[in-house]
Amino acid sequence: MKFEDFIFKETLGQGNYGTVYRAELAAISLSSSSSSSSSPSSLSKRKQYHRQQQQQQQQQHFAIKVVHYDDNDTSNISKEIELLKALNSPFIVSFYGNFYNNNNLYMVMELCDGGSLDDYINIKGQPLLEKEIKGIVAFTLLGLNHLHNNETGLSYIHRDIKSANILLLKNGRSKLADLGITAELTNSHRTRNTVIGIEFYINNCITL
Fold this sequence. Notes:
By secondary structure, the chain is an alpha+beta fold. Helix content is 33%, strand content 25%.
């Protein structure tokens, strides 16, 4: 996975830790991957092979976060990468890999074609319907549950739940994103005493 494998399109968002772009696989990458693989002989293997080829064709669009690489401030990004690699949940944005180019770190992730919940609310310009809220809350809770109980055997808290970090799919589902300030809970530390995040999403009694 390298810079030349992708064609960068429009900007999807920008935050404290970098800029996110929509990207497509370059034609060279597509042709090389298809020519390097040969079709298997047996019927069952051919069917599996064609299914895999269809999935690869569907995964030609990505969201790529570009972060300026600074040796003094990489702990959050490194932690996010390691956590995304370890987690496997349909309710958390998928991570495909990363690479470096010109002092920038590129994180290749699943493209959620519905944009962020924050964008959706701003575009809609009116309150969400109750059925929309129910669905988004349900999928968000499923994502949080996977953070708390997952295949790593460790428990994590997200610490930055907000509409900008909930990404939507056009099929009606939603996924958690931006795990950069996620914290691990251990047997000796089942709670966190630190306060982090945007003040608009913090409990009033804490900010007073």
